[in-house]
Amino acid sequence: MNIPLFLQAFLLSIVAVLATSFLHYESVHRLDLLARRPGSRRHYVMLTIICGIIAIHLADIFFYSLVYRFAIGTLGLGTISSATISSPMEMFYFAAETYSSLGQGDLLPTGAIRIISSISSLNGLLLLAWSGSFLYALAHRPLPSDDFI
Asked: Could you tell me the pTM of the whole model?
């Protein structure tokens, strides 16, 4: 049975969304546990959490770069104009561009991987918003009575 390219791209996108959402949930949960530790200095904890959130997003983007590489190289779901599959930096750049919805326009997906890049943008927006709301809630959490600035 031959699965249509569109359906392959859609299923690969669903796997990527589930994987990055799981990674994000588990990581943010652990960062929240870190923030709740008694006796920790709030300033240092916030800086650590911000660095952790950036690392989470970089890991998500790296995962998407592997998805694009697999989709183009192994499955043959399309190409990215002006990019070579052998360049991990270009795959990472394209993944970051789509994940963040930046869309410079210098690299354009063709073929069925357009589905992956569209869903990647939606996923990235949701995960970025999740991180922002987590930081907002953390910054506005009441200080424990024994915490000093």
From this structure: 0.88
- Total length of the chain: 149
How far apart, in whole angstroms, are the C-alpha atoms of residue 149 and residue 42?
7
Q: Domains in the chain: how many in total?
A: 1
Residue 84 lies in a domain: yes
Q: Which residues pair with 80 in a beta bridge?
A: 109
Instruction: Give the mean model confidence (pLDDT) for residues 94-107.
Output: 89
| Enclosing domain of residue 31 | 5-139
- Cα dihedral 90, 95, 100, 104, rounded to 10, equals 40
CA distance 142 to 97: 36
Q: How many CB atoms lie within 10 A of CB 56?
A: 21
Residue 70's domain is classified under what CATH number?
Answer: 1.10.287.70
User: Which of the residue ranges 70-74, 79-83, 90-94, 122-126 would you say has the lowest mean pLDDT?
Assistant: 79-83
Whether residue 144 lies inside any domain: the answer is no
pLDDT tens digits, residue range 107-148? 889 999 999 999 999 999 999 999 999 999 988 877 555 454
Phi, psi of 110 (to 5 degrees): -130, 150
